[in-house]
Amino acid sequence: MKARWDIFCSVVDNYGDIGVTWRLARQLAAEHACAVRLWVDDLRAFERMCPEVDVQLDQQWQEGVDVRHWSQDWAPTPAADVVIAAFACQLPHDYMEAMAGCEHSPLWMNLDYLSAEEWVVGCHGLPSVKFKGVQKYFFFPGFRPGTGGLLREAGLIERRQAFQRDLQGRQQFLQGLGVFPAKGARLMSLFAYENAGLASWLDVLAADGQATHLLVPEGRILGDVQRWLGVEALAAGDIHLRGTLTVQVLAFVRQEQYDRLLWCCDFNAVRGEDSFVRGQWAGRPLLWHIYRQDEDIHLDKLDAFLALYTQALSAPAKAALIALWQAWNTDSDMASSWKILLEHWPELTVHAEKWCLEQALQADLATALVQFYENWI
């Protein structure tokens, strides 16, 4: 009999929470034969990830997942065998009562935010609070052994490598998006939050001796791009040329297409959590725009990841990468750090693939969750 899983997602902003939970729900259903209900409180945000979703329906099936609208008018619902509160969201009180009323208590887990900090290993899998005898557990994704790993579908790395070897396939994919980079141009993607340092980066790209074709999916960074270009508005399909820099705005695409977009690019600027992980699976040099938190505690998380990611780099390449990431995440001038980074491009490219393959040696997040449940029962 299939284990029944309930995943609760409260959409805060930026699509990262729904992006992670939608990937997880699909993988649990497709690869582990789990019966998954995905509870989402904002179906319009979910629609960006899954255009087939009907935002008017309270219940529907999408790609093997039972998608439910998590509304304020909560109807009595039996609790599942496994309950995941994504990113510490608060479950409906009536549902928690239903968990407490089960003959056999469900496994209740808080799927926490991704972090490379050392303390995560010590907290992963530990019990948290109780509700009327129902125990909640911490479950931390992570990069280190002893954590829950990263979301990675079966065969993902092999599919990515095959796609990157297929020049014609990559060209056809890009052409389907209306992208026709000039021969020899550096292809880059930019998906980020607002950033005052962007103008200095675009300035240096426009003055570079090598052409760059910059793909900018619709998102919060568009306002900064628009100001730098000096145009009144930007929309999907717009293309602007400044010096040796071509800026092209792309429509918001579904997750599978975004993966392929990252695989096509030579360098990817990513943000938050979901695109950050997918950028690593692309095996290409990347730049992470971490979600800003009060009192700059996000910079501790940034430094923790950089300490792990750069361990195998030469001292000059390590310094160059760290300088670029820190400039980007403090809204600082990007010009000098980008120029220095280019000096180490071959090493950083090799390193990105090596890091990807090393991370892929660990169990993926969905498999780790299933194993945790099986050990628990």
Automatic annotation (TrEMBL):
InterPro entries assigned: EarP
Catalyzed reactions per annotation: dTDP-beta-L-rhamnose + L-arginyl-[protein] = N(omega)-(alpha-L-rhamnosyl)-L-arginyl-[protein] + dTDP + H(+)
Pfam families referenced in this protein's UniProt entry, alphabetically: EarP (PF10093)
Presence of keyword Signal: no
Top-rank taxon: Bacteria
Coiled coil: none
Keyword terms, alphabetized: Elongation factor, Glycosyltransferase, Protein biosynthesis, Transferase
GO molecular function: protein-arginine rhamnosyltransferase activity; translation elongation factor activity
Family classification: Belongs to the glycosyltransferase 104 family.
Function: Protein-arginine rhamnosyltransferase that catalyzes the transfer of a single rhamnose to elongation factor P (EF-P) on 'Lys-32', a modification required for EF-P-dependent rescue of polyproline stalled ribosomes.
Protein name: Protein-arginine rhamnosyltransferase
